[in-house]
Write a structure and sequence with these properties.
single chain, about 325 residues, alpha+beta, Cytochrome C Oxidase, Chain J, Catalase HpII,  Chain A, domain 1
Length: about 325
C-alpha cells in the first residue's frame, strides 16, 4: 500500500519494498534450508557441533558485517537484472539455467576498477571488473570476469606481488590508480608473460566510455559437464548491445577532474531513465579430447582462444 506521507524518501522506500512470502530461506550460496535458529548439538544440551555449516556461516557473516575497503576492485558500482537463455547448452552442461530456452534467473552484476581506492576516479586507465552472480534454483553461480580476456600472470602465487606493484608506494601513498608507476613497470619487466595483458591495458579498452559499453570475459577456461559425463572447456563472453566504445586519454583526464563519478553516474542515470543496459551471453567451447590440439595451454589465463578457431556461440 502506498504511503500517504508527504516525505518523498518514505514514498521511495515503499516503492522498493518487496513481498518475501513464499520465498525459501537460503545459505549465502543459495542452498535452501528450513531453519537458521537452532544449531546442531551433541545431545539435547550441547555442545554445538562444528559440522553445522549453517551456524558457521551465520557467525562468520556476523563477524564480517563491518567490511573494510577491499584491497583490489574497491571502486565499483552494481545493478540487478535478469538473465534469459536464448540458446540451449544442455548438450554441454547439466546446469538447469543453461538448459531450457526461455529460462530466466535474477542476476547481480558489479563493475569496478582494480587498482584505485574507493575514492579514486572512474576513468583511470585500468582493468574493469565484470562480476556476475546468477541466482539459480540449484544455488548461486558466480562468474568473476573482467573487460579484458587475459590476465597479467599465469600463477596465482604472483598475485600479491602484482597488487603490491600497482598500489601506491608505502612511503608516500602515491601514485593513485595511475599507469605511470615505476614499481608496476619494474614488475612487468620481470614478467614476460604479462606482455599480452599490457597490450590490452595500453589500449582504449582500459578507458571505456561506459560500463554499458564494455565487454565481459570470464578470462579462465572452465569446464562444462553434461548428463553423459562428457567434458568441454568453456570461456564465457558478454557482448554489449550498445557496442564497445572508449574515450580518448586526454578526454579521460579532463572528465576525471570534473566528474570522478562519471561511470557510476552514467549507469545510475541510464537505469533511472529506463535505458537498461543489455549484453548478449556467449561461450567458446572446446571438447576435452581436443585439449592438446593447440600450441598453447588452454588453462593459461595470459592466452586467448582465437575466435577464428573457436567461434563465440551467442
Amino acid at each position: 500500500m502506498k504511503n500517504d506521507s508527504t516525505n518523498a524518501k518514505l514514498d521511495q522506500l515503499e516503492d522498493l519494498k518487496t513481498d518475501n512470502s513464499g520465498q525459501a530461506l537460503t545459505t549465502n550460496q543459495g542452498l535452501k534450508i528450513n531453519n537458521n535458529q537452532d544449531s546442531l548439538k551433541a545431545g539435547e544440551r550441547g555442545p554445538s557441533l562444528l559440522e553445522d555449516f549453517i551456524l558457521r556461516e551465520k557467525i562468520t557473516h556476523f563477524d564480517h558485517e563491518r567490511i573494510p575497503e577491499r584491497i583490489v576492485h574497491a571502486r565499483g558500482s552494481g545493478a540487478h537484472g535478469v538473465f534469459k537463455l536464448t540458446k540451449s547448452l544442455k548438450e554441454f552442461t547439466k546446469a538447469k539455467f543453461l538448459s531450457e530456452v526461455g529460462t530466466e534467473v535474477p542476476v547481480f552484476v558489479r563493475f569496478s576498477t582494480v587498482a584505485g581506492s574507493r575514492g579514486s576516479t572512474d576513468l583511470a586507465r585500468d582493468v574493469r571488473g565484470f562480476a556476475v552472480k546468477f541466482y539459480t534454483e540449484e544455488g548461486n553461480y558466480d562468474l568473476v570476469a573482467n573487460n579484458m580476456p587475459v590476465f597479467f600472470i599465469q600463477d596465482a602465487v604472483k598475485f600479491p606481488d602484482l597488487v603490491h606493484a600497482v598500489k601506491p608506494e608505502p612511503d608516500n601513498e602515491i601514485p593513485q590508480a595511475a599507469s605511470a608507476h615505476d614499481t608496476f613497470w619494474d614488475f612487468i619487466s620481470l614478467m614476460p608473460e604479462s606482455m599480452h595483458m599490457i597490450m590490452w591495458l595500453m589500449s582504449d579498452r582500459a578507458i571505456p566510455r561506459s560500463y554499458r559499453m564494455m565487454e565481459g570475459f570470464g578470462v579462465h577456461s572452465f569446464k562444462f559437464i553434461n548428463d553423459e559425463g562428457n567434458v568441454h572447456f568453456v570461456k564465457f563472453h558478454f557482448k554489449p548491445k550498445l557496442g564497445v566504445h572508449s574515450v580518448a586519454w586526454d578526454e579521460a583526464t579532463k572528465i576525471s577532474g570534473k566528474d570522478p563519478d562519471f561511470h557510476r553516474r552514467d549507469l545510475w542515470d541510464a537505469i533511472d531513465n529506463g535505458a537498461f543496459p543489455e549484453w548478449d551471453f556467449g561461450v567458446q567451447l572446446i571438447p576435452a579430447e581436443d585439449e592438446h590440439k593447440y600450441d598453447f595451454d588452454l588453462l593459461d589465463p595470459t592466452k586467448i582462444d582465437p575466435e577464428e578457431d573457436v567461434p563465440v556461440q551467442l
